[in-house]
Amino acid sequence: MIPWHKIDTVLLDMDGTLLDLHFDNAFWMEHVPAQYAQYHGIDHFQAIELLTKKMQKKQGQLQWYCLDYWSEVTSLPIAELKRDLEHKIRFRPHVPDFLQAVKDAGKRSVIVTNAHRGSVDIKMHKTGLDALVDRIISSHDYGYAKEDQHFWQHLLDDEGFDLERSVLIDDSVPVLESAKRFGIQHLLCITQPDSQKPERRVEGYASIDHFSDVMPAAKPSVDEDN
């Protein structure tokens, strides 16, 4: 599924790929509407309806992922509220082992996420994920979401990776489509981003559920080469 002998750089989404998307879904679909309803003195279902409309207008744009933007829109301390549910932040199956295998295979691992740096910091503190990869890049660093071609151009200029010798693993089909248009050769989709929701059927892309299915082999040692 991944021709590891042709791969130098492993680009990895964070939420729904390395980390269980259940945290984010529970936060945005349950916790934020509840807090919004309480703060503004409205019905819970009214809060869901209002927030859904606001979010749909920004879907796929950088603001969709921006904690500062939603703090302003909702009048709620979004980053602080995330800590209420941080016990739900957890790795998807076999992720630490996979990242160690990528390192042992001599590949560069770079997290490319649409998550705001405020969210990234909370998740790094909870999981220690930053110690398992070479670099973490947020789309907010470049000013463009991953759905935008400008993001990939900034990433290419920044990282200097080879489009034909890189793989992107992501749970978002729109993001994979954007990366494909840009020319990234190897693409892989996650079928069950949220552990509390059914596995999805993904059309048009190779897909996996667990990282144990695509573990790279360790790079041969000098003695083995000889």
Automatic annotation (TrEMBL):
Coiled coil: none annotated. Keywords: Hydrolase. GO terms for molecular function: phosphoglycolate phosphatase activity. The keyword Transport does not apply. GO terms for cellular component: cytosol. GO terms for biological process: DNA repair. The keyword Flavoprotein does not apply. It comes from the Bacteria. SUPFAM superfamilies: HAD-like. NCBIfam families: HAD-SF-IA-v3, PRK14988.1. This is Hydrolase, HAD-superfamily, subfamily IA, variant 3. It comes from Bermanella marisrubri.
